Task: structure prediction
Amino acid sequence: MTTTHDAPPAYEPLPEDADLWTAKIRRKLVRALPPDRMVPDRQPAYLSSWIYIFGALTMSALAVVIITGTLLALEGPAWWHLSTVGLFVNSLHLWSVELFFFFMVIHLWGKFFMAAWRGNRTLTWMTGVITFMASIGAGLTGYLSQTNFESQWIATQAKDGINAIGAGAFFNVLNFGQMLMWHIMILPLAVVALTVLHILLVRTKGIVPPFEIASPEGGAHADATAETAGVEG
Amino acid sequence: MFASISLALGAIFNLMGSGHYIHWGFVQISVANLLVIVLMVVTFFAAILIPFRHKSGGKS
Amino acid sequence: MSKNRRFNPDRDVNPWKGAYRPYDIAKEVTVCFIVVALLVIVLSALFGSPDVKSVTLKSWSNADRVDFATTAIAELDGTSGTATYGAPYNNVAGSGQKVGPVSLVNLMGVHIPVNPSADFVINPLTTVTGQPALSKALATFKAASPAQQAKWEKAYEDAVAKAKVVNNTLVVPAGPYGPVGVLIGELTSMATSGALDTSIINSSGFYSTDYTKSLLFVADSGYLANKGAAEHLSGDQWGMMNGTANYPGQPWLWLYTLWYQVPPFSTSWSANADALVWAFMMVLTALLFFVPLIPGLRSIPRWSRIYRLIWRDYYKGRV
Result:
């Protein structure tokens, strides 16, 4: 089987349907996100380093963060102070967050030293940086949602920095309800949406090739023009 | 039942004592954070230095 | 993109024409997830997570009645941290940090009004009924001129500096502080009983999810500052990246907290340190964001040659 679909379509798309919005959206989607590019079986031979797994490790940690956060949400923000099960779930949430940042920063270092923005991958880099920033916000609001001494301390300290840039007027770190909403609704949505966008960009563009150096067959490609550049894969 | 399970899974090492900190000039860092950062650097170099073995075996 | 733009190795790539190898992404993700989940379970079982009990007005005032009364009189006479804060809580001439000539906090104005003398002292005391001495003191205080109020407040401030706690009761030396002694004394009793916590939190109704006022009050105390410093959480202790006890905190904030420790942020710029550190971090974040577009910065990876290690299989046999 050479087809990338499991099941054959119930009908062949008909030419007279081509103007339907649905058909147009489908054509656009298939063109923008071809399935064999999204979930490929093969990768370029230069993928040969453990540094490549840190994206997947970051994503995995994010999944654990969201699962454990959902478990905490089931019983509410004060549960973990009162229950040993709750405390353990809180521990799972804390350590998955520590690992999430741990892997994400190593992923960032790796991509930096590979200059992974080359070949029209600027947006991939930028979505990564914004995801990092949104995650820091999620981390901060998480600490503020603990409802313990650490929340009190961080809230009363962080207010000065956030007030100083004028943001404190509408982002009040002393307002627990507001911070909890940001932590369990707004920022997770942002981090997950940004991550999905980031991964779609990675899959669409493919992984960045190594820097060109003199190859056995000939000279460096220093005289190549940008016409061919960036259309790799 | 849940309580006994979570007791069994409770923290084995108690980190709730007063924090350990390292002072070095103007730098002040908790041992825990330093450990995390050192581990990150070590992991980074391990990731780029440890040979990556392809399951399909073949060298390209 | 101009068609004839010169090839820039830090921006452009040539299409990959080399070999492709089977690589099981689904398996990679699955194995990663299982490994991470197990690691999280092991770390949690080994170390758990910290939970230091919150400070209440009750616990603070019981632990240190003199500190509470000292903070309370500062709230009443308008010298506390919150009373002199300015925007977004109140209008205070000359307040508000600046970046150069611009004070963003003042541009945004007062959005979360807090009036410490009313919100923290007078209003809670007004809710108390059946205490004739307190009612009388409140009436006397409210009827007095601002100048008279200020005189009483100053006298109490001087007296409370020599206050003691005897048998769990605040004992302030006598002085010409008029009704203020009764006011702060009753407020301290309210605080130690826990009634003040409830009174401030419930001031906007039965339900509350907003602890702005209580937190600002507690943050004005010496008690919280000492507790924070004991946990190495103060700003000048790189506290932003620290967690309580022996737990890792937010080590990813190391760069942000670093600037607070070094000149000029820690010295000549310290009055505006929060605003300036934020402004500086925004510039640095923008640099990180725009790395792919910034000549020089985007060449660091090529110069560092770490890529030769990452792709050493590929470069094998190439010179």
Notes: The domain at 51-205 of chain A is CATH 1.20.810.10 (Cytochrome Bc1 Complex; Chain C). Chain A has a mean pLDDT of 89.
